Amino acid sequence: MAGQTVEAPDWTNGTNLASEQLGAKVLFATDEWFAAAKNAIQEAEPVWKEGLFTKEGKWMDGWESRRRRNPGHDWCIIKLGIPGRILGIVVDTCYFTGNFVPRVSVQAALDPDESVLPHYESFRGQEASKEQRDTIKKLESNQWQTIVNMTNLGPGTPDTRLTYLKVDTPPGQRFSHVRINTFPDGGIARIKVFGETLPPPPEALLRLKNIDLLGLENGGKSVAWSCLHYGHPNNLIRPGRGVNMGDGWETARHLDRPPKLQINKQGYVDFNGTEWCILKLGVPGQVDHVIVDTCHFKGNYPESFLLESCFLPGTAEQGLSRVQWETLVPRSRLTADNIHTFEVKRQQVTHVRLTIYPDGGVSRLRIIGNPLVSPGTTNAARL
Description:
- By secondary structure, the chain is mainly beta.
- 4% of the residues lie in helices and 38% in strands.
């Protein structure tokens, strides 16, 4: 919906598959005269730089093509960081007020033949050459599945900048690439493709040992949380270590913490409160060890944490309110900017609940173990 302020849909709590930090990449764009298409997949909020001009024109934080004076329309191809089921797309025109793209549509494909792609690097001040345009035709991206029909966008003012485009993708269907069509030209600040990753196929799982059962690349996801003031629990399951303090799950400070903190009989500080999040393993499994990484959290890491687990195969997330949680890692201390490893032995885990005392930030949570899968099992049966 464009042109008016609306509440963000639930699907925006999914993973941004088009995030540069996840490895997403612009493979081609017809025109990047004023601003490079690669800017549109940055994680950071768009910024405005008053009075800053380049030799092409006004500097803009996003992707902006020149004003077309020839037939056609502009478009770009983005390779998603991780293939997945697409649930919705957010197009942000922030700061593009008299130069925003008026309409977009979106097409998608799974594993197109990239060998036919022309050599291309996204940067400002260029348009695709005739040779590049002729080569890209071999990809036949104009024939990809349409997942968003032509839709109007709003100007980049605070109340109209965000357009939410719901995508009705069947469970189990994945896409790895999207084509963003702009009609006919103009600027877009950010493009976010929200969705969920899926577990590896059963035949692949049979060969895997000691994997991150919770990892985003294996279909893990967050399903509930108490607070996400500074960072989303989805960040906990991203590949690699956090790039900065914003690349993790961080809560607000508890306002009801005591005026003076004291140590309890167990040797921990009494805080009168906790924060928590629940995450679903992409691959149910037998856990061998757990890794809690507080990378970059130095003055705001939790004092300690508790990790619990349960086994609810094929159960709707609503069933978690009635589940009997079992301790996977008892309350244990954490330290600043550090990797903490805990050996555990727990059969059949599908979900974990991370509780932090009392608040703060954690960068990554890894649940390392072996998949529970039998020959003939389908992805749908495990989810």
